[in-house]
Amino acid sequence: MNQEFSTADLIDIAPDTPSCETQFRSFGRRTHFCGRARTVKCDRDNGLIKQLMNTNSDGEVLIIDGGGSLASALMGDLIAGAGAANGWAGAVIYGVIRDSSAIGLMDFGVKALGTNPRKSAKDCAGEVDIPVSFGNVTFRPGDYVYCDEDGVLVSETAIEPA
């Protein structure tokens, strides 16, 4: 997918495109990223996230519904580094990360609510590739996700910049 886009321009092209209302912070050097969605729903447990980031990807975006918890990080530098090395475009995390300075040096995109140095459980509790909802939008596996400094868009079909 074309990485040169602006979510503001895309929503002007397709005004009915759902825009996530959650106010995320950006981490990682990749401020613009897009790809097909994969999803994880988990509660203070990043075992499934680690498994997915350690698999090969064709530039997908991992959408993580952590319930908005600020209690423990769902991604750190090792998991983000694995995602970058395996071809993932980035992650959108309805939760927090840790190791933000190290992630900030990576060619990887991360949107998250903030940071917390506390580790998560690693029991692989949760669900993968199911519809998840936050910020007044639903992300389904295979949807197209577009992220930049202005926000996160999700669409069933690709939106091509003008």
From TrEMBL:
Substrate binds at residues 76-79, 98. GO terms for molecular function: 4-hydroxy-4-methyl-2-oxoglutarate aldolase activity; metal ion binding; methyltransferase activity; oxaloacetate decarboxylase activity; ribonuclease inhibitor activity. InterPro entries: RraA (IPR010203), RraA/RraA-like (IPR005493), RraA/RraA-like_sf (IPR036704). Coiled coil: none annotated. Pfam families: RraA-like. Catalyzes the aldol cleavage of 4-hydroxy-4-methyl-2-oxoglutarate (HMG) into 2 molecules of pyruvate. Also contains a secondary oxaloacetate (OAA) decarboxylase activity due to the common pyruvate enolate transition state formed following C-C bond cleavage in the retro-aldol and decarboxylation reactions. Homotrimer. Belongs to the class II aldolase/RraA-like family. This is 4-hydroxy-4-methyl-2-oxoglutarate aldolase. It comes from Neisseria wadsworthii 9715.
